Structures are given as structure tokens and as C-alpha cells.
């Protein structure tokens, strides 16, 4: 009835709605710090742009090329407009890359732990997944990844900063890695959280000008606060770009999503404010976890992954007190999205009471 590869999947578990959870736990207020969403909302420019959208266009198919958004992004990054591909969220781009590149029996190198969708979609295409452990500090182990290369390797997934550890690799490190990888292997660098890195020149987008086997992924869902609108994109060169374009769904971005994304993308002041606040709050989280003697990884993103002993118990305790965080990624560990300052201090207060009771 179905293909063999889909019989043994570990499907992505989407978030329950806040209303459902509130009802289930009898809560008045519940703050979701489990999905790495932007706790500060999105740019006010988004509402303004959508208000002036012509609903009379609702019956028309959207611009298949998302030209307006395409121009904004290509201009900012100084790349060719033809080197951009949009998806209904980065999720769809990840699915498309697997669909276009992988055949049954191909090999994929996937760090453990990392974002689970790489593995899911590689599996659906019948690829064999080679998982390479992170190093002790939670960083991707590029030397170990290199050792797993075989003539069958088709994709290497590099999440940078890595979800869920938050660890960040410098572009120079990724460049040396790319120099050692054969052209036949596509290296996919997922920069979903790159805006949160507190340094300059952290992206490898410019390296796509040099490496034809490099694909860089970005999303509007995190720092731009637009998760509900589902806009992500890939930067890469032909010929891969042409194949991806040929295989994608023609109208995968609604005009509504394109209008929202263009407005959000242009409001760099909003993103700067969010990123600065997150950076300050991250320092406070580091201090708090250090003080509580809870092990954690060095995060450059808007979340922190920490070890909590009985993580089910702490997860449940925080949920009953109105804060949902992410459990189930690694036994004993929890990932918390860095939220608004008042929520971060509230969670820290709850945790201090829990651990020092
Ligand atoms: C959130 C996330 C995505 C998915 O982003 P969408 O654009 O919302 O689909 C992709 N990669 C990583 C690492 C993420 O954490």
C-alpha cells in the first residue's frame, strides 16, 4: 500500500495549540517556550502591509516567483535573484532538497543531535542515515563527519547554530570543511538561527559564490517572528537550483505570505532590537544555569539546551506553572526558548524554587 521507507518513520511532533493545553491543565495563562518562536512577535510593519493588501486579489494565484520578496533578499545579500528558492517554510525546502537529491540507498550524514526533519525526509526518500555524534561541548564534529564520507554520500546536513544545542561554527571553519568535500556531495547549511549570533559576518551565504555544492537555508520564522506565515528560502547555484525550481510546487508562497515576509525582512530595526534583547537574556540564562550547577551548551541562538536530572518532572512542574518548554530531545535534557525578560525571570524563579526546595 505504501512505500517501504515510510513504514518506520519518527514523525515530527507538532506543538499542541495553547488553547488545548490550557484546557488540559486548567491554566489561565500559558507561555510557549518550546518551539523557538519569537517571543517579541513580529515587526509592526507586517500588520500595516497586510492591511493594505487587496482582498480582491484573493481569487488569483500568487506570483510563482515571489519577485518582490526575491528582489529585497537578493539585494541585501548581493546575490543573483536566480539563486534564491522560496518554500512554504524552510520545512518545505528541506523536503524538496531530499526529494530532488536522494535515491534509495544513497547515504546522508546527519549530526546527532540536530533538527529532526533532515532525518525524516531523508528516510522518506529511502536514504541510509549515518548519524555522527556531537563533540562533548555540543558542537558538530566536522572531522568525524568527514570520516563517514563514502562514494554513496549525497547530503551532509550542517545546522548552524545547531538546534537544539545552539552551538555555532565560524564561517572559516565551514569553508575549510567545504574545501575537503567532493563536489558530488551537497552540503546543506541551515542558518535558521544565524540572526541571533552576536558577531559580524557569520553567514556562509557568500560562500555559495565559490562552492556549487553548498546550499544555505534561511527562514523568516525565528528572528523575524513570522512562523505562522511559512516563509523559508534556499540560496544555491545552478544546476541544483534549476532542478529544485522544476520540482517545487508552483504556488507554494501565497501573496499574503510574500507581503508579510517582505515587510518583516525590511524592518531590520525590529530584528536588531529582538536580537540584542535575546543576547542580554542569554547571558542571564547562562549565569543562572551556572549558579544552579546545571550543565548546558554554549548557545548562540534564541534557546538553551540544559541538563535537568529528571527532565520529565521539571517539564511538568513548569507546565503546571504556565511555561511550556521542550522535552524529549535527549534523556534528561530540556530546551528552553529565550523569552521576554519577565518570563525568563519568572521561569528562573520557579526553577530556583524547584531545585532548592
Ligand atoms: C525552525 C527550524 C526550521 C523550520 O523553519 P520554518 O521556516 O518555520 O519551516 C528549519 N531548521 C531549523 C534548524 C529550525 O529550527
Question: How would you portray this structure in words?
Answer:
Keywords: Amino-acid biosynthesis, Aminotransferase, Histidine biosynthesis, Pyridoxal phosphate, Transferase. Residues 29-343 form the Aminotransferase class I/classII large domain. One of its GO terms (molecular function) is pyridoxal phosphate binding. Pathway: Amino-acid biosynthesis; L-histidine biosynthesis; L-histidine from 5-phospho-alpha-D-ribose 1-diphosphate: step 7/9. It is a single chain. The chain is α/β, with parallel strands linked by helices and 357 residues long. Helix content is 37%, strand content 16%. Residues 36, 89-91, 115, 159, 163, 190, 192, 219, 221, 227, 232 line the site of pyridoxal-5'-phosphate.
Amino acid at each position: 500500500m505504501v512505500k517501504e521507507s515510510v513504514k518506520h518513520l519518527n514523525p515530527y511532533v507538532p506543538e499542541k495549540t495553547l488553547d488545548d493545553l490550557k484546557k488540559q491543565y486548567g491554566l489561565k495563562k500559558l507561555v510557549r517556550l518550546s518551539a523557538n518562536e519569537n517571543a517579541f512577535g513580529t515587526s509592526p510593519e507586517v500588520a500595516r502591509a497586510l492591511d493594505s493588501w487587496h482582498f480582491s486579489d484573493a481569487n488569483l494565484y500568487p506570483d510563482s516567483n515571489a519577485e518582490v520578496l526575491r528582489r529585497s533578499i537578493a539585494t541585501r545579500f548581493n546575490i543573483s535573484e536566480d539563486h534564491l528558492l522560496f518554500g512554504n517554510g524552510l520545512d518545505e525546502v528541506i523536503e524538496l532538497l531530499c526529494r530532488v537529491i536522494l535515491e534509495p540507498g544513497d547515504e546522508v550524514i546527519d549530526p546527532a543531535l540536530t533538527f529532526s526533519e533532515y532525518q525524516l525526509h531523508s528516510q522518506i526518500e529511502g536514504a541510509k542515515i549515518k548519524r555522527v555524534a556531537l563533540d562533548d561541548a555540543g558542537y558538530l564534529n566536522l572531522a568525524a563527519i568527514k570520516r563517514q564520507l563514502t562514494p554513496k554520500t549525497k547530503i551532509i546536513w550542517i545546522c548552524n547554530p545547531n538546534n537544539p544545542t545552539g552551538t555555532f561554527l565560524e564561517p572559516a571553519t565551514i569553508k575549510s570543511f567545504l574545501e575537503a568535500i567532493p563536489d558530488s556531495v551537497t552540503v546543506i547549511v541551515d542558518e535558521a538561527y544565524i540572526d541571533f549570533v552576536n558577531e559580524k559576518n557569520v553567514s556562509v551565504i557568500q560562500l555559495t559564490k565559490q562552492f556549487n555544492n553548498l546550499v544555505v537555508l534561511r527562514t523568516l520564522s525565528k528572528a523575524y517572528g513570522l512562523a505562522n506565515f511559512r516563509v523559508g528560502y534556499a540560496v544555491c547555484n545552478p544546476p541544483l537550483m534549476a532542478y529544485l525550481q522544476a520540482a517545487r510546487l508552483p504556488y507554494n508562497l501565497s501573496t499574503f505570505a510574500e507581503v508579510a515576509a517582505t515587510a518583516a525582512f525590511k524592518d531590520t530595526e525590529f530584528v536588531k532590537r529582538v536580537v540584542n534583547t535575546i543576547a542580554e537574556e542569554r547571558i542571564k540564562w547562562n549565569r543562572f544555569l551556572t549558579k544552579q550547577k546545571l550543565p548546558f551548551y554554549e548557545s548562540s541562538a534564541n534557546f538553551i539546551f540544559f541538563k535537568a536530572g529528571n527532565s520529565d518532572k521539571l517539564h511538568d512542574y513548569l507546565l503546571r506553572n504556565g511555561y511550556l518548554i521542550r522535552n524529549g530531545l535527549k534523556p534528561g535534557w530540556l530546551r528552553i526558548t529565550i523569552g521576554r525578560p519577565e518570563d525568563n525571570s519568572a521561569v528562573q524563579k520557579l526553577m530556583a524554587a524547584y531545585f532548592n526546595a
